[in-house]
Amino acid sequence: MKKKFRFQWGAFLMFCVYGGLFFLLFSRFLYIQVTGEAEGQPLRAMAQAKYEREQVLSADRGKIVDRSGNPIAEDTVSYKLIAVLSEKASKDVKDDEWLHVVDREKTARALAEHIDMPEEEILDRLNRQDDPDVYQVEFGPAGRDLSHDKMKKIEALDLPGIQFVKDKKRFYPNGPFASHLIGFAQKMEQEDGSVKTIGQMGLEKTYDELLSGKDGKMAYESDTWGYLLPGAEKQVTPPEDGANIRLTLDKTIQNFVEDSMKQVEEEYSPERMSVIVADPKTGEILAMSQRPTFDPETREGLSSNWLNEAVQYTIEPGSTMKIFTLAAAIEEGVWKPDDYFKSGSYSIYDTTIYDHNKNGWGWISFREGFQRSSNVSMANLLERMGGEAMMQHFRNFGFGQKTGIDLPGEAAGSLNDVGPVERLTTSYGQGSTVTPIQMVQAATAIANGGKMMQPYMIQEIKDPNTGKVLREGQPEEKAEPISEDTAETVLELMESTITSENGTGKIFKLNDYSVAGKTATAQIPNGKGGYLRGPNNLLYGFIGMAPADDPQLIVYVNVHRPKIPAGEWGSVPVAKIFKPVMENSLKHLNIRPDEEQAADAAYQLPEFTGQTAESASAELGENGIRAVATGTGGEVIAQFPEKGTPVLPDSVVLLRTEGEPVIPDFTGWPKRTILAYASMTGTTLELSGEGYAVSQSVSPGSPGDPSTPVVIQLETPEQEVITSGQEEVPEEEQLPLD
How far is 537 from 525, CA to CA, in rounded Å? Predict the structure, then answer.
């Protein structure tokens, strides 16, 4: 029998369904093959996004170095702390080798002892472990920039899940070192979540764009697990490191400044201080610092004052301004050093100004007036040359206008040229304001034969990627406000303030170099139209140049409101900065000491040992040298100074002889020679004060008694000072205490 065909609706429907699905799938494949897109997205790009990895190659922030290339600020290796929270990290590992945080409380407690974050906050971050989408966490600024030492200490805790990632941090190897000048940079989180080192103040902020550089990247194709695919090529875009900045600063001289300022800060607790060291021949700034200061590494000590006071803070300078009043008078032809004037006071209209001792010194010469820092002498010079002429000379010196130094935020100061009284007070440094850098710039004209040099601090900015110099500092003569003859005359008069019997700057005398300088003791405005009162409310300053015959360095120091002990002078803390800074800096620069320059003309001490004291004394006397025998006479056993030492006239040479020591007349002896006498004879001496001997408790010629100490009073020469016992002058008299 022929079998009857029976149509299978079920099979037909299945064929249609699966056939339709196959057709759709085939069409989809065909579409993707032709267009390379799926759901409007390019498949090639999607594949690259899935399998391509990109690693950021961080650029080094540019270095800031001193003139010799010693680092002041640079990038260094640091570590970032992370905590792995996901249990997936510990899949297929042994139970005692967990790679994720297991004990949250223990981990938080241990980390809190090593990073600057409270235990509760650390625990709060670790508790994000309960969120399945969180694989690991970081600890913000507290967990970044960790040193190698701190990383090792945390690593030694052996905390499961705690790991470290190598990072970079800004490193300041010198601690508090020109901190307000250099500033600091720190890591800041950006809007996209990335972290970038950004300058926050000082040079780090001003030149942030140049210092920052540009990050590079390394791109490569990987498998699902992130491993490099076989045959895949890496595409590297190298980073471009930031530009390096070489300063004119000399690290050694800067350290001299920092060390001396630290000592004075600890001893006198001043409100503020600033120091600048400059090369007057070029205008280069070799050192610049201030107090209070801070450590840019930790920011410890950073207060609300972010100003670099050498260029951004104005002061009434006091008597250092008299240097430029004197120069103006010489230029105007009215300086007659041997003319006389009546010191003490000077009146104009209803205003009377006084000398710093109020009563003056009677009729004195203008030369002596400058040496004594007489305000009245400046008033008489102003009267001779006229106010407009003086103020124009001050403008020629650059006062009242920015120097143009290559540092940010410079202040201009102001010359108070309102009327005769204001010009009068300006002549001796009160009423008008200047910046320390303006004082240094103007002083270069005195030290440099009338040529005023532009101060600068950036020696070179260089691109390390190409070797191209982007910017280079060069000595630049800014103006010639005075003649060479005037500069020479002013320099000689400034030296006389150190060497003259009447000079106010004797305390600033150096052992090995001659100094030309000018002291200042200035009142400080109280912000209410008057001035602060009392010896602890003054600004003490000094600007000095050495060697005096051809200055190689200028050092400007000002100390605000130091706490001066009763009986001590305000210039003492200033000298404790100036003297070691200037002397050590000159020796560091291999500037030949004056004694060496005069060695050929000086008397070279022979060997007196074995000779009689009488013959040795006679030979020394013929050369103008004072011989002091320490005993009763006879044969010379030892001498001070030693054989071969060059000795100038009026010096003291000690000759140790036979017999018991005899107490000499110590008057005028320097401390060094007195100590040599004590060491040579075994005499017990007690020294009080500093400087030169002015009195002694035992009469000259008395036999030395080891059981009875000889008390010797030392004093430094007369200074322009205000002591705690000085009579105060009513404020309305506008007395500049100088």
Answer: 10
